[in-house]
Amino acid sequence: MLQLSPAPHISSSKNMEKIMYGVVLALVPALVGSVYFFGWRVLFLTALSVLSALITEWTFQRVTHREIRCFDGSAIITGILLAFNIPVNSPWWIPVAGSFFAIFVVKQVFGGLGYNIFNPALAGRAFLVASWPSLMTGNWTPPIGGTLSGLSNLDGITQATPLTLLSLSPRASVIHALNSGTMLKALFVGNTGGCLGETSALLLLIGALFLFAMRYADWRISVSYIGSVFAFSGILYLLGINTVNPTFHILSGGVMLGGLFMATDMVTSPVTLKGRWIFGIAGGLLCVLFRTWGGYPEGVSYSILIMNMFVPLLDRLQPRVYGRSK
After folding, report:
1. What phi-psi label fits residue 319: left (phi over 0), alpha (psi between -120 and 50 degrees) or beta?
2. Residue 87 sits in which domain range?
3. Are residues 98 and 238 in the same domain?
4. Among 147-151, 284-288, 311-315, which is the least confidently predicted range?
5. What is the pLDDT of residue 171?
């Protein structure tokens, strides 16, 4: 009358599908906000990205005679996050190509869910930036009822997003405007130019708080990543190396999107608490270094992808097993 099974013997109501669709639900506020700021084309590009991810995963699993798991939610998340990382004016084939690369090369070739080394959506973005840099970094569209730079007086200087404007026009008047409270408010709300899912820190935080409350993601990674970006950029700001305040750095670009939804990916982030703190702090440091001395204004994608490579090493930082000597 007894049921025998291998350890662990701890039951939980959580399963992979529930967690994955919980993440999808957490991305809905940012998606709705993106439609409000950039129009209905957001849904078109996001749908193409998700369909490309689902079809690629289904085809691969069917051809390789594996269990069909394309509807477990992970491919949908990859499709949404990949779409969140492209400009809204991108041609239709950009999200299709990015999701195909993310699922086929980064995820399935490595063994599928749980075996991929890199975050698929971020790797897909890196592939798109390397392949079509002009479409990914210079194809910006101003939000509806707003401006590309976040301030109307700056749009007359150059057609650039706030983060790009920092590297293109480091004049005193521009720096003063970027450090203003009006700019920071625009960045927090999301009424600026940028990739279609990264502009609103407020809506991303709302979704992330849901994940933390449900324990679908670990807040330690997000706090350490975003906090280290704030701390290290603040140090460089006090030293006079950086010209904009640290609040601008955490609200601009993809810091919030990457720190809240990509660095926390359970497959490509450490399993130990100590490893998660190191992962986030080191990733934030790399982001600041890339933004300060790199040739590309953004550094979020590459900072997280680099730290993905160190996850197996960080997973070795685990507490001593009970009953085993050091």
Report:
1. beta
2. 16-137
3. no
4. 147-151
5. 72
Q: How many residues does the chain have?
A: 326
Question: CA-CA distance, 208 to 222, in Å (whole number)?
Answer: 9
- Give the three-class secondary structure for 202: helix
User: Do both 98 and 208 map to the same domain?
Assistant: no
Average pLDDT, the chain: 89
As for how many domains the chain has, the answer is 2
Tell me which of 111, 137, 163 is where a domain ends. Answer: 137
pTM score: 0.91
Do 268 and 182 lie in one domain? The reply is yes
| Averaged pLDDT, 115-134 | 94
Domain assignment present for residue 320? The answer is no
The tens digit of pLDDT for each residue in 157-209 reads 456 778 877 776 567 778 888 888 888 998 999 988 889 999 999 999 999 99
Whether 41 and 131 map to the same domain: the answer is yes
User: Which structure tokens are listed for 24?
Assistant: 């999808």
On whether both 79 and 159 belong to a single domain, the answer is: no
Per-residue pLDDT, 124 = 96
Q: Which residues contact 304 (CB under 8 A, 6 or more apart)?
A: 119, 122, 258, 262, 263, 283
Cβ atoms within 10 A of the Cβ of 38, count?
25
Q: Closest Cα partner for 32 from 227, 207, 174, 176? A: 207
